[in-house]
Amino acid sequence: xxxxxxxxxxxxxxxxxxxxxxxxxxxxxxxxxxxxxxxxxxxxxxxxxxxxxxxxxxxxxxxxxxxxxxxxxxxxxxxxxxxxxxxxxxxxxxxxxxxxxxxxxxxxxxxxxxxxxxxxxxxxxxxxxxxxxxxxxxxxxxxxxxxxxxxxxxxxxxxxxxxxxxxxxxxxxxxxxxxxxxxxxxxxxxxxxxxxxxxxxxxxxxxxxxxxxxxxxxxxxxxxxxxxxxxxxxxxxxxxxxxxxxxxxxxxxxxxxxxxxxxxxxxxxxxxxxxxxxxxxxxxxxxxxxxxxxxxxxxxxxxxxxxxxxxxxxxxxxxxxxxxxxxxxxxxxxxxxxxxxxxxxxxxxxxxxxxxxxxxxxxxxxxxxxxxxxxxxxxxxxxxxxxxxxxxxxxxxxxxxxxxxxxxxxxxxxxxxxxxxxxxxxxxxxxxxxxxxxxxxxxxxxxxxxxxxxxxxxxxxxxxxxxxxxxxxxxxxxxxxxxxxxxxxxxxxxxxxxxxxxxxxxxxxxxxxxxxxxxxxxxxxxxxxxxxxxxxxxxxxxxxxxxxxxxxxxxxxxxxxxxxxxxxxxxxxxxxxxxxxxxxxxxxxxxxxxxxxxxxxxxxxxxxxxxxxxxxxxxxxxxxxxxxxxxxxxxxxxxxxxxxxxxxxxxxxxxx
Length: 656
Known about the structure:
Elements (H helix, E strand, L loop, with lengths): L1 H12 L22 H46 L79 E2 L3 H16 L3 E9 L5 H20 L8 E8 L3 E5 L5 H9 L11 H11 L1 H7 L1 E8 L10 H10 L4 E5 L8 E7 L5 E7 L31 H10 L2 E4 L11 H4 L9 H9 L2 H15 L9 E2 L6 H24 L6 H7 L3 H32 L3 H6 L3 E7 L6 H20 L4 H10 L4 E7 L49
Parallel strand pairs: 1-9, 2-3, 2-5, 5-6, 6-9
Antiparallel strand pairs: 3-4, 7-8, 10-11, 11-12
Helix pairs in contact: 1-2, 3-4, 4-5, 6-8, 8-9, 12-13, 12-15, 13-15, 15-17, 15-18, 17-18
């Protein structure tokens, strides 16, 4: 290319001539004396070649820049879009389970026949920078009388903010709306859960919103198009009840009259995605800020679309605010108190969790009388909805009714929040930590094999039955022992205490102490119970019939199975007591205390009750004259009506 420019420069520097010589090459510089027409043609050729060369240089430069940009974009997209695969490690993290819905993110996505028309595919990140010079906005929140941010708002934070009444939730959402109105137009999309359990809350929310919207009307926010709202009802499907630009009366009426969805399915993430697509054109055309508000009492069913919803909202700069329930500890299914029209309250099953990306709680029943804590409310928020809120810059407002509130303080539990990351990142961090691997391996092992609860503790044997009764009682521990030992094998590695010291998450430190401590305690109990049964088997039939026929197995601090059992018992006590000491006021401390409530050994309290005397012999019966034969049956049939016992009337309960 440089030689071409040099040659052109030489051509332009030579004198023009009129006619070329006979042997002159037509593409070489003309000989002296060339004609004017020849000079004109020569100039045209040189100009064309020069422009062509310049265009070629520019094309090469643009191509090089495009390749550079393309390479840069490929790197960026691959880092953001490709999931991180966790490296392999010693223990299996998950296998096929009988219940595929045991963890939130393993649930198959519910098919959703959306009522929304699918518009053009979403564009990249759209930041609103070309706003109009002047936008009519209302006065700040402090000057709106209907907005009272009072003592009902007890905690602040994007991951969990507790409100104790519907009014408090509405006021907190309104504060966010007004704050955005101070800088731009705002489009608010209210997504209302259509479950029948939220009917009363929707009425209260509508009443509160009506007053605030009226005041915004007076300030000119709605009449000057600074604020527009849409209302969506969602359950198994989503339905637009009123479009953006509706009047205050239409908005409030739509919230009050959300049609009840009786399917019991809440496809919340599919609804979010549909709303992003539906209102994208309007948001871009009107240069407005868009806010999503989800009002629900469940965590949603279509978990498989969580990451898709996160991507859609982040790429379109849409913060999501949620007014929803607290989560269950390590469990997806929970209950909610539902007041029936008959005035009675029923605890109905709903999805309220889990509080982490997957199940982190050991599946091990407690022995002896007491609460199993199967439905323990963690006080934190459901993982899926919280991740959506965190990644989009919104806020989660916990609103539980009194009967559904967690016993644990949110101020305490915020220290134990899980990692609200993608499942791939979560598993990558687990794979890099021997402590976390051990905990989750034990959880998965105990989840695959449903363990049995308290074995038989009271016996009333005889010489003929005692051996069989004890053998059947030992079957409980014989069934549990292999699974417990397999789970304990996950902790059979050096360096776990060093990993505990380096672990920065209080949540994982608590899980380690509780999980390992409970497994050790249960292993000791199984061995000690088995030993006590073996001792009683040696009593003999004659001893049972004459001296010992009432047995009661009771927990005892002494262990008899051997020195190894004694060491395990001491280590279990150390771990569980450390869990209680370092995590006061948390579910982990409560569950550790439940295990420590009874010692790990067994003793047998024996007693003897003599068998009752045989019944006295009856005197021989006197001979009586033969009875008169009964009359012959009539040929007429007697029809007897069966007596019907009263049965309790079953109350039809809805699906929530």
